[in-house]
C-alpha cells in the first residue's frame, strides 16, 4: 500500500449509509469488513514504522543521555500526519478495493 498516494481524509467526515452498505446489503457486515481491513492496515503501518525507526536507533545503557535524531523525528511526524487506518479502510471500501468472501 502506498500511503503517500492515498486520498483518504485526515479529518472525520460523514458517509452516506446506503453507499457503505450497498455491496453487502447490511451495514453491520460492511462495518465488520472495514474494521478487519483497518486492523490489517494498522499492522502494516506499525511494522513499517518500527523498521524505519530501527534504522536510527542508538542503543545506550545510560538513562541520563537522550539523543534527539532529526531524521527519526521527521519519520515520526510523517506517520502522525497520515490518515487513520479506519479512514484508509473506508476509502478502500468505497473504491471497491477490498475483497471479501461471504460464506456462511
Could you characterize what this model shows?
This protein has helices at residues 17-21, 27-55, 70-80, 85-94. It is mainly alpha-helical and 104 residues long. It has one domain. It is elongated. The model has no long low-confidence stretch (mean pLDDT 86).
Secondary structure layout:
Blueprint: H1 17-21, H2 27-55, H3 70-80, H4 85-94
Helix pairs in contact: 2-3, 2-4
Determine the mean pLDDT.
86
The low-pLDDT segments are: none
Tally the helices: what do you get? 4
What level of helicity do the residues show?
A: 40-55%
Coarse structural class = mainly alpha
**Span of the ends, CA to CA:** 30 Å
Major sheet: size, sense and barrel closure? none
What percentage of amino acids are in beta strands?
A: under 5%
Overall 3D form: elongated
Radius of gyration equals 18 Å
Describe the structure concisely for a colleague.
It is built from 4 helices and no strands. It has helices spanning 17-21, 27-55, 70-80, 85-94.
What are the defining features of this structure?
single chain; 104 residues; mainly alpha; transcription; DNA-directed RNA polymerase; RNA polymerase Rpb6; DNA-directed RNA polymerase activity; Pol_omega/Rpo6/RPB6
